[in-house]
Design brief:
alpha/beta; Rossmann fold; four-stranded antiparallel sheet; 9 helices; about 40% helix
Length: about 240
Amino acid sequence: MAVMIETKNLIKVYGDITAVDNVTLSVERGALYGLLGPNGSGKTTMIKMLTGQIRPNGGSVSVVGIDVMRDPIGVRERVGIIPEQETPPSFLTATEYLNFVAAVRKIPDIDEKAAWWFDFLDFRDKKDVLCKDLSRGTRQKLMFAQAFIHKPVLALIDEPLINFDPIMQRVVKDYLGEYVKKGGTIFISTHILEVAEEICSGFAILHKGKLLHTGSVSDLKSNNQHLDDFFLSLVQNGAHA
């Protein structure tokens, strides 16, 4: 099985704070993988290093077979990214933003593809509204569309459901599951354990920058364990270690 994400002894330091501390992680193709941790555990920093938005202070990181430090643009060309803070350009309409993404990524037939996403995520009535005037939930729909519109081999999503209502959460969870079944790979960062247990095949637990555990959801279930209980026990023990 091909490895889509691989980090070795990855480190990121901000002043006196080690945000990511010697993290070694491997994610295989076809996984729906969850990076779990409390707020401030280093999850967003990990996503930014995986996508080449910030450089690590040590270690190595490879995404879709590309050395991220050597070719961050090459990585971003291959993957889809949804940041925690949805930030489409305020001065563009939703349609104009997807047209811009298509121009950058050289995506053909953008009108047809954009129309599909407006219908699928139920925001066709907002397609000509400036991004600055969209609700947070609608901005997240737009960011979701831009991340998947080129059908990437890998998508990295920071808190995928945080601004969606229950109906849209179900739509998005089903989409992610189908995407993986068709050969894609999804890497999500979240602190919502119920979502991770429902949709993820594998997971890693990060706490205060340190990797506490990697494993599979199926192994937990076979041992009659729930992810939230396992997570809380591990993090609380780590906090007092």
